[in-house]
Amino acid sequence: MGLKGFAEGGIASIVAGCSTHPLDLIKVRMQLQGESAPVQTNLRPALAFQTSSSSSAVHAPPPPRVGIIGIGSRIIRQEGTRALFSGVSATVLRQTLYSTTRMGLYDILKTKWTDPETKSIPLTRKLAAGFIAGGIGAAVGNPADVAMVRMQADGRLPLADRRNYKSVLDAIAQMVRGEGVTSLWRGSSMTINRAMLVTASQLATYDSVKETVLERGLMRDGLVTHVTSSFAAGFVASVASNPVDVIKTRVMNMKVVAGKTPPYKGAVDCALKTVRAEGVMALYKGFWPTVSRQAPFTVILFVTLEQVKKVLKDFDF
């Protein structure tokens, strides 16, 4: 397919990502609900003896959980309507790096592994193509992913603690200056795992559902079939990836201050602390916004992709 497949997938992904950005922002805010920073205190009983050099920490109880509409309304009320597009520049960069790579590689692998006689490809190979393409794409796009999460979450912080990034490039520059180059790949293991799950489940499910519907004559090849397949793909991808996505969001968003112990040592530590403090279902925070975002994202992605292919069909690069 050459570079053309990457260009087609990238353009379609940027359009889909920008169109569904507000839902993605709401999802991130919901995933961070219940995460409480430790409140340092020097108060102790008069006869207590200090047995450790580290200061004690008291965790405030998490506030009541708020749903999709509640979070969206709060953002508009407290931060303004424009806040729903906070971090959209990071979304553009992320889709340019991550989705362009995964869409292009997935099509290349799928084409290469398709049986030339039957013109079919087994589900296992579709999943394998998704795992490989998603993992490589996530490694390439992780810096933009970290910047996007931070820019989306900034509005929930107190004014004194906000990072106030001006753009995705400013976010990346500040992270490099203040936390080192390695901060750009913070949470990369979770990002790669999530991307592998999302790409494999999303693209493989879309292809399989669409093929099944058309083979059995349930629908004609058109917009209704694309929408149905997309919703199925979005739901499966959401179920598979949401727990990893919650942990990824929290690890990427944590504020690391020199001389202080970070909130989480890594992804496993974050998962254990989240489950202990908030219960297992905390791993599915933001699930419905994820579904609400994945379904239209997939619809817009594939509908746009078909139109881009028509526009670029006469170009060879």
UniProtKB/TrEMBL annotation:
<dbReference type="GO" id="GO:0005310">
    <property type="term" value="F:dicarboxylic acid transmembrane transporter activity"/>
</dbReference>
<keyword id="KW-1133">Transmembrane helix</keyword>
<dbReference type="Pfam" id="PF00153">
    <property type="entry name" value="Mito_carr"/>
</dbReference>
<keyword id="KW-0999">Mitochondrion inner membrane</keyword>
<dbReference type="GO" id="GO:0005743">
    <property type="term" value="C:mitochondrial inner membrane"/>
</dbReference>
<dbReference type="GO" id="GO:0006839">
    <property type="term" value="P:mitochondrial transport"/>
</dbReference>
<keyword id="KW-0812">Transmembrane</keyword>
<keyword id="KW-0813">Transport</keyword>
<protein>
    <submittedName>
        <fullName>Mitochondrial uncoupling protein 5</fullName>
    </submittedName>
</protein>
<keyword id="KW-0496">Mitochondrion</keyword>
<dbReference type="InterPro" id="IPR023395">
    <property type="entry name" value="MCP_dom_sf"/>
</dbReference>
<dbReference type="InterPro" id="IPR050391">
    <property type="entry name" value="Mito_Metabolite_Transporter"/>
</dbReference>
<dbReference type="InterPro" id="IPR018108">
    <property type="entry name" value="MCP_transmembrane"/>
</dbReference>
<dbReference type="InterPro" id="IPR002067">
    <property type="entry name" value="MCP"/>
</dbReference>
<keyword id="KW-0677">Repeat</keyword>
<comment type="similarity">
    <text>Belongs to the mitochondrial carrier (TC 2.A.29) family.</text>
</comment>
<keyword id="KW-0472">Membrane</keyword>
<keyword id="KW-0346">Stress response</keyword>
